Amino acid sequence: MMTEQEKKAFVAGGSFLTSEHTEIFTPEDFTDEHLMMAESTERFVDEVIMPQSEKLEKTDIPTIVQILKQAGELGLLSTEVPESYGGMELSKAGACLVAEKMAKTGGFVVSFGGHTGIGTMPITYFGTPEQKQKYLPKLASGELLAAYALTETSSGSDALNARTKAVLSEDGTHYVLNGNKMWITNAGFADVFIVFAKIDGKDFSAFIVERDYPGVSVGAEERKLGIKSSSTRMLILENVKVPVENLLGEQGKGHKIAFNILNIGRFKLGAGVVGGSKLSIALSSQYAKERKAFGKPISDFGMIQHKLGEMTIRTFAAESMVYRTAGLIDHILEGVKFSDEGGEQRILQGIEEYAIECAMAKVFCSEVLDYCADEAVQVYGGYGYSQEYPVEQIYRDSRINRIFEGTNEINRMLIVDMLIKRAMQGKIPLMEQAQSLMGELMGPPSFDFDEDFEVLSDEAKMIANAKKVFMFIAGAAFQKYMEKLADQQELLGLAADVLTETFTMESMLMRTRKAIGRSGEAAAADMIAATRVYCHDGLERIQTWAKTGLAAVADGDTLMTMMAAARRLLKHPAINTIELRRQVARKVIDKEGYIF
User: Fold this and answer.
1) Fold of the CATH domain 27-145
2) Catalytic one among 319, 392, 405, 506?
3) What is the model's pTM?
4) Of 12, 35, 92, 554, which has fewest CB within 10 angstroms of its CB?
5) Does 210 qualify as catalytic in the annotation?
């Protein structure tokens, strides 16, 4: 039970839609500890990993293993391991910052995350004291390396459709596992696998499987489009005897492990791809200053400035929402330690509280990186298509992020599904506000803009109305389809985009206003420009989605009435986004990199 003070400070997951949030964690709030960890990670990346990039791109297993073990010696593998087991027990914001700094390494960050994240965290959160004592100190130091084995040929996004089977032996001492796991990161060298199987073909459960158990083998390296600096192979289990004490968590509760670990992985992936987006901006701005055409640097051309400005604005948006999410989780877990009684469960509950925000971060940020990588290749022109230049690798490596940790399509379904479930459980007053909204829309217009108001007041109104648009669309869709709404995937995906756009715009607004309060309007001028551009363009995108969504749930006079109401909500003043984007781009060109 939460204390009264905890209840007052509590911010429910998804509640940004129905209530005004006033506090946000931003990159400007990093502590000295955060910055020291970031500096150590960057130094390791630049001095140890990048000089080996050519070997890594050839999937040189000994080199990957050697670097991971060096990372373990420096403590970089222990960031989220409890202190009592030799870890650093960093905050989620700190762990995200490490993931972001590792992004420069391309595919190697997948090897790193496969070990520190989905490979180690299941034992951290669900292991028995004996399992933690046996494995965590060695995983933290790099003595053991880990992998996560969930996916099968018949169960990609549908993880619970696994065919790998576990049968308890007659003497009750071990389980016998049989099956194959596909696309397993780190399979070429991992010492420990977190394997999901169905006990007696029905109870979906998790097991800790060691590589040297008889019957464990791996297939050949997959020939991948990108992330070549990571090992990806099939894991083959043939009559593998796994001690009963290596059952991880409860029998039949493997889904709790799988889904909770994916929640964590999603927003950390968001942080990692933010790092990749920043790298794309830096490389593109540097090249644009060097490359000359028609007698001047291509950075002088408006089309190039548009690209650099938009890449930076979208990355600022992604960074703002990722660290807002990390801050929400850290806030709800403030003062909670793994060593506390029930600490692991409280931490898991805190992370699960923001599963909606984690899914939105994964979808949005992975698509921002794809945009930045694509535009980086375009800035480089023909050279961008050559392996002699770095953006070619970024382009190939980026594509997997929309598939990892649940495809973006699945995550879009989850975003709306989880929100509706929270509303039905009374955790957020979505239904009540959606009903009252209908009365408001039938009343006289109240959405006016006034340039004399405080800075970004128009954007604040846009965001407030974007929330209403989501409730309008979601309410109409729910009213028409009721329990069959889950079958309307296109509509759900569209609603998820509206919700994600709204959360992103609000994250930018809150971060920028916090910067203004800290340093003044002049110092935050570039943040203001980025926020204004993104909110303006975001509302234009929402307008298109609203038109499509409403046409899917109504027709005739009803549709005309709904469209009129939506137009009122989505009314916004025109601004010179070209000049504001140029303002951001010029700063990027001067700095030759990300400016926020």
Assistant:
1) Butyryl-Coa Dehydrogenase, subunit A; domain 1 (1.10.540)
2) 405
3) 0.95
4) 35
5) no
